[in-house]
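Repro:
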Amino acid sequence: MRRVKASALESISDYRLLEDERPSPGAGEVLVKVGACGVGYVDALVALGRYQVKPPLPHTPGQEVGGWVEAVGDGVSGLAPGDRVMAAVRGGFAEYALAPAPAVNRIPDRMSFSQAAGFRVNYLTALHGPTYADYASRTGRFVPRF
């Protein structure tokens, strides 16, 4: 399978498209065939080593994907090969990515993989922004609520 991978986080030129072994899901994991991978601000920071938490090297970017369930590991229920899903993964810039089963959700037929790939992080960020702004405008303080 193909994946984007870097052994350093200095520049975008550190990344290469490489052939790699397709991963196999372990217990509690789901192998997703990636149809689309979301790219947001945090992804760019992580990919260039500018985020406060550095990923282990070598690094394949991509935290959220839309695609199909390819295989499930032992102990996974409620998901089956062929299901259309969105998932939180490590290494979404690949043809296949592993996800913990609780981080995988089926998507409706009318939702595209591109929409699913940007839904988890970007949608929730957009949802919380106005909440925080409203709180700050009413109180004069900014206190994150989680």
